[in-house]
Amino acid sequence: xxxxxxxxxxxxxxxxxxxxxxxxxxxxxxxxxxxxxxxxxxxxxxxxxxxxxxxxxxxxxxxxxxxxxxxxxxxxxxxxxxxxxxxxxxxxxxxxxxxxxxxxxxxxxxxxxxxxxxxxxxxxxxxxxxxxxxxxxxxxxxxxxxxxxxxxxxxxxxxxxxxxxxxxxxxxxxxxxxxxxxxxxxxxxxxx
Length: 192
What we know:
CATH superfamily: P-loop containing nucleotide triphosphate hydrolases
Strand content: 5-15%
CATH class: Alpha Beta
Number of domains: 1
CATH topology: Rossmann fold
């Protein structure tokens, strides 16, 4: 599951966990960035998760590959949702959050984009005091949404996995989670 910062992925995933518990579905959510941060700490680099994108690209590539290996090692059974980004804004430019080597290793069966209106995302970023989010204009957020869709399309071609776009408009996180849960159920034949 992907989405640009401030779109509400964590909120939707929290609702998804509630549904999984309610229907007794074996669901694991892994956050790619959190695992990268853990690996960086093990390598002696305690970097705030929102500052990881400011590290050298080669270091990010190395940690990204190690994180993908760790995710594969953690996946045992049931449905696994990986919370990540299609791309990350870096000083060098837009960097793929799921480049070909990572997609091949993870082998996703479904790619999900969580989206909302650019103005809502900008507002969420301003209100999120726990994170160090870029405060960019709604027009730039619109570009990021388009870039995510383009990157998802390329990822779908590379993996053969379908892309599902789910809206997370203000106050509708439960409906977004229900749509995601239903999509997962159909894809995996999980019966509630």
